[in-house]
Design goal:
Strand order of the largest sheet of chain A: 1-2
Number of helices of chain A: 13
Shape of chain B: elongated
Radius of gyration of chain A: 29 Å
Structural class of chain B: alpha+beta
Order of helices and strands of chain B: EHHHEEEEEEEHEHHHEEEEEEEE
Radius of gyration of chain B: 23 Å
Distance between the termini of chain B: 56 Å
Largest sheet of chain B: 6 strands, mixed
Order of helices and strands of chain A: HHHHHHHHHHEEHHH
Shape of chain A: extended
Distance between the termini of chain A: 65 Å
Helix content of chain B: 10-25%
Oligomer: heterodimer
Chain lengths: ~300, ~325
């Protein structure tokens, strides 16, 4: 970047350095990435070109005002996003959706285009924010959930988008779905929390009645080992390499597999596959212990 | 800056549902570090599950160890069960990571590993890529295979599993898959006692008809100590249909089957259509007919261990 700043404006050297800089910065973009070994085609290619040009112009105009390390760290991502946002108008999004519709179902091509579409919809910032009177913390979470479900709908039901209906705008179709999904989630939210409690209030009521935590009961079950199951189950010829010991080392003392391996003089893979078989075997027994000891 | 960023990836937001479940699971842990581990593992699994749903790949969250609080307490586990195929491990990294940590517990028993970048400030999750196998705890992110290859890889595995199908029509031509032996070998019984094992027979006969084709396979439902024989008898009705009898028998000196052993008939989607369970019984049997070209599964389960054999009628 400094290289560009050093060059005199208007010179060919500066244009070249500028191009190189822009190409490098564009690498952290979140859309218009080609599949490996292929080049961008169709509307994605067009978007990439235009965004590239616009980005170049913006940098060119303002580069002398930037301080390189700071800009690279903080400025690139937001500038990129803003640039793409301007380029991604509804017409281009619509054409991307149509390209996806026209590709064969279940093909890699379709999945690729749908993924790009879903990313593009997010970058374009054209999703509506429905009004609601739920607490702000929960609004964010529920809204994000609604967006995810809407994007899932785009993935699975892209064929039901009809560009001939109404104004044919893609974002109308997406936002309609988002509105509905959001409303449903808000309903569910109100059903679940019959009074709209603040997050703090919920935490306090839980603290009053504190049953023992599941992880503590699991630990208790294994360390107490009432039936001497867990310390007897060991790697053949290595009585110290038993399930109880390894559990304690991993889950209570937070030792790494490497440490345990050095301590017991057994390879990590042997230890971890032994442990893996043990947890499959003992899980039902431990689960029963937890259930029996849970005051309900 | 992350050089992975130029390659294909998909980003989702961490919404309410993901947050609820991740919080719920992490609350079971008394230790803060482990609570964080469970929280991040849950978000990673949730995100990969969501993406697979987008692609129309069937998963089974409830059957995944990562969704089981007892298992979460026993190991650093982030598996996602893909229906009829196996487990994908979903490991999370933070936004500035250059490698991903994969604990030794997950080096085996997985069909693949997907890396999910979690950004808790922007509340986003990005799927970066995947690998098929892992043998070290730290995997550099630049060794990941591109995400767009994942659906193909899964489809490849699906078609490979078709090759493990036992093709029953071929048995009529005496072509038996390896592992399927003659009953007298597997049950260690003299031939005249065999007929007694198949009660009910076909179409009202009390004995297995003489021209039935029978074969058995040893199944190990424990650690070498819970062996049973899965026996299959076929009687062709005509070109398009087979009478099939499936029976689980104890082997050698054992007189009874293990308690609470389940024998389940699955349709081609893996859904159960018929079931039997032991209670002090000597054998257990299911009888049905299969049309040529029909796929079905037979699952034998004891506690946490189950073995499913896939058949083509």
């Amino acid at each position: 970047m400094e290289e560009v700043q050093q060059q005199l404006p208007g010179t060919k050297e500066r244009q070249l350095a500028l191009r190189r800089l822009v190409d490098e910065m564009m690498r952290s973009r979140r859309i218009c990435r080609p599949l490996k070994g292929q080049s961008l085609l169709g509307v994605l290619q067009e978007i990439y070109q235009e965004a590239g040009e616009q980005f170049l112009r913006t940098i060119d105009q303002n580069i002398d005002d930037y301080s390189p390390p700071e800009f690279v760290r903080n400025g690139t991502a937001s500038l990129l996003n803003r640039t793409f946002k301007e380029v991604l108008d509804d017409d281009r999004l619509k054409r991307l959706a149509l390209e996806a519709q026209q590709s064969p179902p279940q093909s890699q091509q379709r999945q690729y285009l749908l993924t790009e579409l879903v990313n593009a919809i997010q970058v374009s910032n054209r999703l509506i924010h429905p009004q609601s009177n739920i607490p702000r913390d929960f609004y964010e979470l529920i809204y994000d959930d609604a967006v995810n479900r809407t994007l899932l709908y785009v993935f699975q039901k892209i064929d039901s988008y009809d560009p001939e209906r109404g104004e044919g705008r893609l974002m109308n179709w997406v936002n309609f779905r988002l509105q509905m999904t959001f409303r449903d989630l808000v309903h569910q939210y109100f059903k679940m929390t019959s009074l709209p409690l603040e997050p703090e209030e919920i935490k306090n009521t839980e603290l009053e009645t504190q049953p023992p935590l599941l992880s503590d009961m699991v630990t208790e079950c294994i360390i107490e080992d009432q039936d001497s199951l867990f310390n007897k189950e060991c790697i053949r010829n290595y009585p110290y390499a038993n399930f109880q010991h390894i559990f304690r080392a991993r889950r209570v003392d937070y030792k790494s597999w490497k440490e345990i391996s050095e301590e017991l003089n057994i390879p990590v893979t042997t230890l971890s596959s032994f442990y893996g078989r043990c947890i499959e075997k003992f899980a039902p027994i431990i689960k029963k212990y937890v259930q029996d000891n849970t005051i309900s | 800056m992350n050089c992975i960023a130029a390659s294909f990836s998909i980003t989702f937001r961490l919404g309410w549902e993901a947050e609820q479940i991740a919080k719920k699971f992490s609350k079971h842990q008394s230790n803060f570090q482990l609570a964080q581990q469970v929280y991040r593992n849950t978000l990673a699994v949730h995100t990969v599950n969501f993406y697979l749903q987008c692609l129309g790949i069937q998963t089974d969250l409830e059957a995944s160890d990562s969704w089981n609080p007892v298992m979460q307490s026993l190991a650093d586990i982030a598996d996602l069960e893909v229906k009829n195929l196996g487990k994908i491990e979903c490991r999370s990294v933070s936004w500035d990571a250059e490698s991903v940590y994969i604990p030794a517990e997950a080096w085996q028993g997985r069909i693949g590993y997907v890396v999910v970048q979690l950004n808790e400030t922007t509340r986003e999750a990005t799927l970066l890529g995947f690998v098929k196998k892992v043998t070290t705890e730290e995997l550099p992110l630049n060794q990941l295979r591109p995400l767009e290859d994942l659906p193909d890889y899964i489809n490849q595995l699906k078609s490979q599993s078709v090759q493990k199908l036992v093709k029953l029509r071929e048995w009529l031509n005496s072509a038996f898959e390896s592992g399927w032996q003659a009953l007298e070998e597997i049950l260690e019984l003299p031939p005249n006692k065999l007929a007694v094992n198949f009660r009910g027979g076909f179409r009202g006969n009390t004995k297995v008809a003489d021209n039935s084709i029978t074969r058995g396979k040893l199944l190990d439902l424990g650690w070498g100590d819970q062996l049973v024989a899965l026996c299959v008898a076929l009687n062709p009705i005509d070109e398009s249909e087979l009478d099939i009898s499936v029976e689980v028998c104890p082997i050698g000196n054992q007189r009874y089957l293990p308690e609470k052993l389940n024998l389940i008939l699955l349709d081609e989607n893996g859904d159960p259509v018929m079931q039997a369970q032991t209670r002090n019984t000597k054998t257990m049997q299911l009888q049905f007919s299969g049309e040529t070209g029909e796929r079905f599964g037979v699952k034998v389960a004891l506690g946490n261990v189950s073995i499913t054999e896939e058949f083509l009628a």
